[in-house]
Amino acid sequence: MTKNFYLKHHIYHIKAIFAALKDVFENNVFADKAIEKVMRANKKWDVRERSFVADVTYDMIRNWRLLNTSAATEGKLTDKNLWMLLGTYLIFDGYELPESEYFRNVTEKKVISQLEKFSRIRKIRESVPDWLDVLGEQELGKSWDKTLRALNQRPSMVLRANSLLITPKELQQKLEEEEQIMESALVTWSPDAVELKFPRNVFRTEAFHKGLFEVQDAASQMVSEYLNVAPGMRVIDACAGAGGKTLHLAALMKNKGRIIAMDVKENKLAELKKRATRAEVKIVETRTIDSSKVVKRLKDSADRLLLDVPCSGLGVLRRNPDSKWKLSLEEIERVKGIQREILKNFSDMTKVGGKMVYATCSILPGEGEEQVKWFLNEVGDRWNFAGEKRYLPDVHHADGFYMALLERVK
To answer: What 3-state DSSP class applies to 268?
Structure first.
């Protein structure tokens, strides 16, 4: 059903979108949590209703500056301003405005004129704050324009086939049989990736509950591939979070060997344990980093070490468009300090002859290449640089990721 159907017949869908937007921009709630909140409050909605609310909310957040500037509504999110923003968004997205008193203040001709005017200004057209536009151009130069445009597009949904249980082609067939998901494709450069043409609620499928796949971007999957693990190895994932890459490593190791998944957040590791059980992964041990001793006890012990460090997240703006309004230059500098601390304090968990991957989901060389140069300068001849890869949204049609492979020689 079209957006106009919901606009004409179900005002409560619109109210839900407005509630989510207020949570994001007035209460500093993350977009996924704000949308989750309205979904919990409307449990009887079907898949189409949920998709409509989520898609419109994310699209409006993604284009927030362009919509606000074109509608001249910058300021408090009153009901009047929210309806102006929604009307502007619908015109921007190519829909005719439904006949409604709610849109009485929206003049289509004027909105189109304003959209055309401000679409000539990159930072407004792509809806980023001034400081981010300046920083992106400083760090990426001429490629910033294309990268930024790609970052402001809707993301595709990508699955990682759990190779312990199924191949990507078999997963395609399974989903087609179960859910009539026919529009999918293998990703040629990411061996376990299956890309869905249209986002679906895959979490309710039998295939998901049987552990046959995880939702994980194709570029993110390449981080684990780059670590070059093998069955029987001792591997440490030192910033494991909820374990997406940990589970991929276990599959690449064919469930043979040992993986120690570490994180400062115990609740994330608890989620990892649940996911590991579903995926039939049996080689993962979790450890909460609650003191420096946890890391020191593992010195010189790992054949492979993954440092998927905290970062700005600028490579995943397609999925988290609200983060560009929550970030700041000061926060990025703080995160860069954390990255250096982790590199310096965690790298010695790798044994001599072992390898480490340093990875970020950032497009900025300041969080990637420059951090690796700093580390190699700090450690002298104890480590060798073995290669690096960068995935960019405009080139690979995936999230932005950087990864460097380093080998410990002393």
So the answer is: helix
Distance of CA 29 to the CA centre of its chain: 17
Considering the chain, what is the average pLDDT of its residues? 94
Whether the CB-CB separation of 336 and 140 falls below 8 Å is answered with no
Q: Residue length, the chain?
A: 410
Using the 8-state DSSP alphabet, how is residue 256 labeled? -
Summarised one tens digit per residue, pLDDT across range 223-253 is 999 999 999 999 999 999 999 999 999 999 9
Q: What distance in Å separates the CA atoms of residue 311 and residue 360, rounded to the nearest whole number?
A: 6
Measured between alpha carbons, how far apart are the two ends of the chain, in Å? 63
In the chain, the domains with their CATH numbers are 3-122 (1.10.940), 157-215 (3.30.70.1170), 218-408 (3.40.50.150)
239 is catalytic: no
The predicted pLDDT at position 2 comes to: 56
**Three-state DSSP class for residue 215:** strand
> What per-residue string of b and e applies to 109-148 under the rule 16 or more CB within 10 Å gives b?
eebeebbeebeeeebbbbbbeeebbebbbebbeeebeebb
Asked whether 221 and 193 are in contact (CB, 8 A), the reply is yes
The reported pTM is: 0.93
Q: What parts of the chain have a pLDDT lower than 50? A: 1
Among residues 265, 269, 261, which one has the least CA distance to residue 234?
261
Distance CA 353, CA 97 (A): 64
- Distance of alpha carbon 20 from alpha carbon 36, whole angstroms: 9
Between the CA of residue 51 and those of 35, 45, 46, 152, 199, what are the distances in Å?
11, 10, 9, 19, 9
User: Which residue out of 361, 372, 392, 405 is catalytically annotated?
Assistant: 361
